[in-house]
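Kindly review both lines to help learners:
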Amino acid sequence: MRSRALLLAVAALLVLAALPLAAATPVVSPVAPSLAAIEADVERARREFEIPGVAVAVVKDGRVVLAKGYGVKRQGGPAVVDGDTLFAIASNTKAFTSAALGLLVEDGKLQWDDPVTRHLPSFQMYDPYVSREMTIRDLLTHRSGLGLGEGDLLYFPPSTFTRKEIVEKVRFLRPATSFRFRYAYDNILYIVAGEVVAAVSGKTWEGFVRERLLSPLGMKDTVPNPSALPAGANAATPHARVEGILRTVAPDDADNIAAAGGILSSARDMARWVTALLEAGASSTGAASALTPRLVQELWTAQTIMPITEPAAPLSALKPRFLAYGLGFNLRDYHGRKLVTHTGGLSGMVSRVALVPEENLGVVVLTNQESSGGRDAIAYRVLDAFLGAPATDWIPAFKEAERVEEAHARAVEGEHRATRAATTRPSLPLARYAGPYRDAWYGDATIQMEGDHLVIRFSRSPSLTADLEHWQYDTFVARWRDRTVPDAFVTFALRPDGSIDRIRMEAFSPAADFSYDYQDLLLTPAREK
């Protein structure tokens, strides 16, 4: 899921995680890296990236060597983060959903390559051929033909759509590429995968995950979705920069996307998850765990080739020699070893899980601020220490990468302003743009006159209410009243008779998270109900 202010910020950072080009041979792991030095750098990164709270877990050779919190649960508050503080792990939930399906495979209730329609008969993609051919495996491997984050506006920002409604709306999402042609990260098919778990098991996704994974692994504090969080829980508060100022933000109501990104967990509980994965991954005969070697090896087997792009210049030393997606995990190399990893992001929180199976090493970083750079600076510092890699100060490198990315976003925004034809007027009186509109996959939106300006509202997403500011010609800018939502261009196309034909939208800034897939909307006038 997203990481707001983030996540094609995140898409770029999904590609970081790799191998310094000079590291041709594995280095010898130290016997006992200095935890005091690591913790000092965790705290330095936390302060440098202005992250109120961080939790870190490290598992090595079957032992939890670190499960600890740093900083506070809420900026300015006294409550400190500890090893049991809960954070949204967001898309690191995808591995749990993949594992849940793997357990059903081992139960003999489905197969990885079963057609989805065998278990969800009503499931449809836009193309009938893809509807027939889409398998359980395809749901998990980001090769469906959908575009990056396509359909995310159905639930991000939080909406009132149910899981069933979201699954039904997949059929209206137009493919961006051919089926199984190219990698493009999505969340929506993991929601479908969660509904497969429910249909096959006869339990809710939450019930199955709790019964077959969380409870057997001793993850007693972990909750599968935000509504399961008990009152007064030891939980971190999310923070994000809103118009340049670090503020607390409302936690995402992620219940309708629980299978794609709903779990909240702690450093201590995530250490149990990582330990179970590593133990099963290292065994060929079986493990006394909810996870078996065969299941974990399936999760860690490459399914979809991912493109290798150049990292930002300050991080040029980080580049993989191979990059692929398994089942709920990214797979790449780092210092001559296979790295099994994933990131996660929701409003005000980002996380990373990183495993080095051949070193029996696992690292978890949980934060309550949307700083992917701070998260990854900590993760690579810990990995390097336990791999005996050459000392690298990742904090200034990721800090500079953030600066470069922010400068690029400002440059694009500046270009928009410089080329704006500010003296132009709309083709029609403002009231003529008002009315009900409909998109095939999202549904209803309305535009109304309020005072001297237009206001757009999306029917099922409370945060998607914006005042429309005239930009140029028949293009307006949606200034969302929820300022955590990135602004968007709203462009009207007219018919020859001057009536509205359609509305297209796109993000105003490249800093907008990819989950704000405004560009996939095609709003057309709708008759009043």
Observations:
- The CA atoms of residues 433 and 500 lie 7 Å apart.
- The radius of gyration is 23 Å.
- The chain has a mean pLDDT of 92.
- DSSP finds 14 helices and 20 strands in the chain.
